[in-house]
């Protein structure tokens, strides 16, 4: 992957924040425990071992739909070990990302450690500037770039894996596949994984060029 800079770098990281569901934790997660005793201490994260979410990415941006599943494998304080499995047609990818669940880390896409699973072995990646993370998530990212301009936001009730949730949906203009486009993304406060879905529609088109849908969770 080429070095990223300027608005392209910013736009890719903005898209990565949508694709990388638990990279920095969920909004509203606690950053410190209470001091009333260990037995009464608030958890440092809303995630629990075994929590799983599955997303489907579809549209003309990809040669085939992409199914991506994230599973919490371990929780130590606020640090999460997350296994990510992605499939696109007959292709598969698997990696492990270790993150500390704070709002600041989520906003900045901070990764403590990143491992790519190759032939069953975990290979530690340098991930300088999140380049390895972007490469691993590339199947889910539409070819969009900034600068972006806000169009508006509204609260909607949307279906998230079979459950109706109230979500804040924001729309911005972007350039995708060298065409003007609008991207809408929805964040759901009551959904532990935060991101409830999104879509990119090229100007003059009705069908989404890119869409992200929650298809399962537990």
Briefly, what is this?
The chain is mainly β. It is built from three helices and eleven strands; from the N terminus they run αββββαββαβββββ. The protein has one domain (6-25, 43-217): YmcC-like fold.
Protein architecture, described:
With 218 residues, this protein is mainly β. The chain has a single domain (6-25, 43-217), classed as Beta Barrel (YmcC-like fold), CATH 2.40.360. 12% of the residues lie in helices and 48% in strands. The protein has three helices and eleven strands, in the order H-E-E-E-E-H-E-E-H-E-E-E-E-E. It has helices at residues 6-19, 103-108, 131-136; strands at 52-58, 66-76, 79-88, 91-100, 113-118, 121-124, 144-160, 163-176, 179-187, 195-202, 210-217. It has an eleven-stranded antiparallel sheet. The longest helix has 14 residues, at 6-19. Mean pLDDT is 85; it is low at 1-10 and 25-37.
The overall average pLDDT, rounded, is: 85
Would you count the extended β strands for me? 11
CATH architectural type: Beta Barrel
Structural class estimated from helices and strands: mainly beta
Tally of contiguous helical segments: 3
Overall form: globular
Question: Could you outline the blueprint of secondary structure elements for this entry?
Answer:
Elements: H1 6-19, E1 52-58, E2 66-76, E3 79-88, E4 91-100, H2 103-108, E5 113-118, E6 121-124, H3 131-136, E7 144-160, E8 163-176, E9 179-187, E10 195-202, E11 210-217
Antiparallel strand pairs: 1-2, 1-11, 2-3, 3-4, 4-5, 5-6, 7-8, 8-9, 9-10, 10-11
């Amino acid at each position: 992957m080429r070095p990223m800079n300027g608005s392209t770098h910013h736009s890719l990281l903005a898209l990565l924040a949508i694709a990388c569901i638990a990279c920095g934790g969920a909004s509203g997660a606690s950053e410190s425990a209470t001091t009333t005793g260990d037995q009464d201490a608030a958890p440092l994260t809303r995630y629990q071992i075994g929590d799983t979410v599955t997303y489907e990415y579809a549209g003309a941006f990809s040669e085939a739909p992409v199914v991506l599943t994230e599973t919490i494998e371990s929780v130590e304080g606020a640090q999460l070990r997350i296994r990510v499995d992605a499939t696109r047609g007959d292709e598969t990818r698997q990696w492990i990302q270790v993150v500390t669940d704070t709002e600041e880390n989520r906003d900045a896409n901070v990764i403590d450690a990143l491992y790519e699973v190759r032939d069953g072995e975990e290979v530690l990646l340098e991930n300088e500037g999140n380049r390895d993370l972007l490469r691993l998530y590339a199947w889910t990212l539409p070819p969009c770039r900034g600068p972006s301009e806000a169009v508006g936001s509204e609260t909607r009730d949307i279906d998230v894996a079979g459950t109706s949730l109230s979500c804040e949906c924001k729309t911005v203009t972007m350039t995708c596949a060298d065409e003007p486009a609008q991207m809408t993304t929805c964040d759901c406060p009551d959904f532990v994984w935060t991101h409830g879905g999104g879509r990119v529609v090229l100007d003059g088109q009705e069908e989404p060029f890119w869409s992200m849908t929650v298809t399962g969770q537990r």
